[in-house]
Design a protein that fits this description.
The chain is α+β, with helices and mostly antiparallel strands and about 250 residues long. It is about 10% helix and about 20% strand. The strands form three sheets. Strands 3, 4, 6, 7, 8, 10, 12 and 13 form an eight-stranded antiparallel sheet that branches.
């Protein structure tokens, strides 16, 4: 009888010990919080209806496209203005057009005077000169870029709430708002026809769409909108595709 009681007690203690759950711990020994939502480009719909606050740049950023390609698909010319309710497609639609009138059979008339030679069209040079990049804020890097890992298309820099965020290079603000999921208060700066940069999770934006900014100019205050801690999420995109910001930023 005593042997049966001892055996039962041993089995009970073993079951209790094996049922304990261990909370996940991060690399610094702290208990991990719930996983953060990642800034992963969404799959584009067949047709997108423009909402208030949208720009061609923010829409193309959301779906991981080059803004020039999206503009071409929808016959939108620079400066790429959109109207609320306008419908955008994400694929090229080629349609064959038939001539509406029959070709003329009349004999060509001779010109009475010699036509004046036309001057060749002047092509304005683009601002695709080499950019000089600088760090958008100070602080420790807590997440690095990964080409393969979903959601790591930039770097995350930890900081204090309200600290200064500056433009990493000179350019034009082409989006300022909070309409992109998981980015919080976001700025997108166009540096030239190739490069864009983004500054997410700000507590306050101090520039607006259409503003031209210099490298190092204050553009926002660091915050935690759209995330769980005070940090700046910084991205660089080349022709619409994310690239590693560390390849462009100076060593420190």
């Amino acid at each position: 009888m005593m042997r049966i009681l001892l055996l039962s007690l041993l089995l009970l203690l073993t079951a209790c010990g094996g049922s304990q759950a261990i909370a996940p711990v991060d690399s610094q020994g702290y208990r991990s919080k719930a996983p953060q939502a990642k800034q992963t480009p969404a799959k584009p719909p067949t047709v997108y209806k423009v909402k208030k606050g949208d720009t061609l740049y923010s829409i193309s950023w959301r779906y991981g496209m080059d803004y020039k390609t999206l503009a071409k698909y929808n016959n939108i010319r620079s400066p790429y203005r959109l109207a609320i309710g306008q419908k955008l497609r994400f694929k090229s639609i080629k349609t064959a057009t038939k001539p509406t009138t029959k070709p003329s059979t009349a004999k060509p008339t001779r010109p009475t005077s010699k036509p004046k030679p036309t001057k060749p069209a002047v092509v304005k040079p683009t601002a695709n000169t080499k950019l000089t990049w600088q760090w958008p804020t100070r602080g420790k890097i807590i997440s690095t870029y990964s080409k393969s890992a979903a959601g790591r298309k930039g770097i995350d820099i930890a900081g204090k709430a309200g600290q200064t965020v500056v433009a990493a290079a000179a350019g034009k603000v082409v989006y300022a708002g909070n309409g992109l999921p998981r980015y919080g208060n976001l700025l997108i700066v166009k540096h030239n026809d190739v490069y864009l940069s983004a500054y997410a999770h700000n507590t306050k934006l101090v520039v607006k769409e259409g503003d031209y900014v210099k490298a190092g100019q204050k553009i926002a205050r660091l915050g935690s909108t759209g995330t769980q801690r005070n940090q700046l999420h910084f991205e660089i995109r080349r022709n619409g595709k994310p690239v590693d910001p560390m390849q462009f930023l100076p060593k420190r």
